[in-house]
Backbone:
């Protein structure tokens, strides 16, 4: 099995980041050892690190947007070779075999390519997750120099990709691509994106690439021109009451990326009959979004649903599509010692639109 992998990282504890050294599990026969080159900062990293989604154990190494290079493989690995460029997203393992039905493999389970819905409850997330395949140890994430991952959960990165921009695709990309693709967005559809941050600016690009007429709802007037430059046809400042008038029955699909408190039914009213709003933004437990059931009922056959990242097959599809179409996040590169400041800036929406850590700065 080999020796456990020595890891250097930045761990979060007592309200700030500090150096933290630990050991990854040994490289098994189907495992891949990756040198992490870039790690994205996701708003969910902040929620988790600060305990806003529930109790968490420290030290905690966040990071589930990872791009790097293979530097070691187990004896039975066939998917990648040493030297390949690869990514790791929100998951690092699952049972990989479960199926809800005994007669088919089309349900939302591991056997259907949706490992995030593992029926055995064995989805292992990239950090702050109990690794049932390695003694129940809590996983540690990508703000580190190396990571060991089951080969099934590796995403191949094309050699010609803009590698420094790939990492955020492994969360922000798939989180928005998946519900838009599953909604079968087509030429001329009226689609709205609520929130124009790390997730929202990716959603605009995907929806536009699928042929939709894209509208953006945001709180910052300064982002109006930027939304248009990424493909939006309309921009609505939610703080401007006049702009928010006359929008009922307008959209066939709305994707909400908002990670703070708001009233969901304000947007269900904007849906056409049989239209759908999909929620992918997750506010903190102390400042949740709300849903007025009475207003929803009287909205008459509008649908509210949710989406959670995507399976490995779909994530690979998303990366390949993004690279082919030149769809990338807008990023600001930082050094590892800027993490605390970066977290504060994310909370102030003071980044366009995603921080990416250059892991060469980890010494």
Residues:
């Amino acid at each position: 099995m080999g020796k456990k992998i020595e890891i250097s990282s930045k761990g979060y504890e007592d309200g700030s980041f500090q150096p933290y050294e630990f050991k990854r599990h040994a490289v098994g026969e189907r495992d891949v050892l990756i040198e992490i080159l870039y790690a994205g900062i996701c708003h969910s990293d902040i929620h988790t690190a600060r305990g806003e989604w529930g109790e968490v154990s420290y030290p905690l190494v966040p990071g589930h947007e990872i791009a790097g290079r293979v530097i070691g493989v187990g004896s039975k690995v066939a998917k990648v070779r040493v030297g390949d460029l690869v990514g790791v997203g929100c998951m690092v393992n699952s049972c990989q075999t479960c199926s809800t039905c005994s007669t088919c493999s089309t349900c939302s389970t591991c056997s259907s390519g949706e490992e995030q819905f593992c029926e055995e409850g064995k989805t292992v997330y990239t950090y702050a997750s109990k690794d049932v395949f390695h003694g129940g140890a809590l996983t540690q994430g990508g703000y580190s120099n190396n990571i060991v991952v089951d080969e099934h959960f590796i995403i191949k990165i094309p050699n010609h990709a803009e590698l420094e921009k790939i990492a955020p695709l492994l969360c922000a990309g798939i989180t928005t691509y998946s519900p838009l693709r599953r909604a079968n967005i087509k030429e001329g559809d009226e689609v709205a994106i609520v929130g124009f941050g790390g997730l929202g600016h990716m959603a605009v690009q995907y929806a536009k690439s699928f042929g939709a007429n894209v509208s953006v709802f945001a709180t910052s007037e300064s982002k109006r021109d930027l939304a248009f430059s990424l493909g939006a046809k309309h921009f609505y400042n939610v703080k401007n009451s006049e702009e928010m008038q006359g929008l009922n029955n307008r959209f066939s699909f709305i994707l909400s990326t908002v990670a703070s408190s708001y009233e969901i039914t304000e947007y269900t009213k904007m849906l056409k009959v049989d239209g759908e709003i999909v929620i992918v933004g997750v506010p903190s437990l102390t400042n949740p979004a709300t849903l007025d059931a009475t207003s929803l009922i009287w909205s008459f056959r509008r649908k509210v649903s949710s989406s959670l990242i995507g399976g490995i097959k779909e994530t690979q599809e998303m990366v390949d599509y993004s690279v082919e179409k030149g769809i990338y996040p807008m990023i600001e590169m930082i050094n590892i010692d800027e993490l605390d400041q970066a977290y504060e800036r994310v909370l102030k929406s003071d980044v366009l639109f995603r921080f990416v850590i250059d892991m060469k700065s980890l010494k």
Remarks:
- The two ends are 27 Å apart (CA to CA).
